[in-house]
Design brief:
alpha/beta; 5 strands; RNaseH-like_sf; Nucleotidyltransferase, domain 5
């Protein structure tokens, strides 16, 4: 059973000592003037690495999962500490993903879990880095540290990206059959 439940044996929840990369992720979904917008970003402390809009029917939890998966993919073959302020995304990995995988990614009623496609994407993406730490950080704090600076940049980049038109890579996601509503 433990091999079924293990996402990866070296997955950490504390920052790595000297990683190749330190990344920050954010996903957001909000309404403005009656229209729903969603987006995500992956940043370093100072630079936006990737940010884009997502389909408007995506909620914040879906956007957070997508951002975390993209960060893992961008860190392929590298050692990386990835920060997220999302309790949901952070909790999915050590807590829920084990149970969901064991239960075939179905709820107790036999229906697919919410965001099943994104959870699968994240599960696969977690294998891409050589070593990975997913670290929870506090959101919207007034402290001035490298972590709060990177997290604030990811937050700003996400909100700016959300209002942009869908780009071709993310536009393809809109037609994927098991996307969250």
């Amino acid at each position: 059973v433990s091999s079924v439940l293990c996402v990866r044996e070296d997955l950490l929840d504390m920052p790595l000592a000297n990683p190749d990369l330190i990344l920050f992720t954010d996903g957001s979904s909000f309404y403005s003037e009656g229209q729903r917008f969603a987006g995500y970003a992956v940043t370093s402390q100072w630079d936006i690495i990737e940010a884009a809009s997502l389909p408007g029917n995506w909620g914040a939890q879906a956007a957070e999962l997508y951002a975390l998966a993209r960060a893992c993919q961008l860190a392929t073959g590298k050692t990386v500490s990835i920060y997220t302020d999302s309790h949901y995304a952070f909790g999915v990995i050590p807590c829920h993903i084990h149970l969901w995988r064991f239960c075939g990614f179905q709820t107790a009623t036999g229906k697919p879990i919410q965001h099943v496609t994104l959870v699968h994407r994240l599960l696969n993406a977690l294998q891409a880095p050589r070593t990975v730490a997913i670290v929870h950080c506090r959101a919207h704090t007034r402290e001035n540290t490298p972590v709060t600076q990177g997290n604030a940049l990811a937050d700003q980049a996400t909100k700016a990206a959300a209002i942009q038109p869908l780009a071709l890579p993310t536009l393809a996601l809109a037609s994927t059959p098991f996307l969250p509503l």
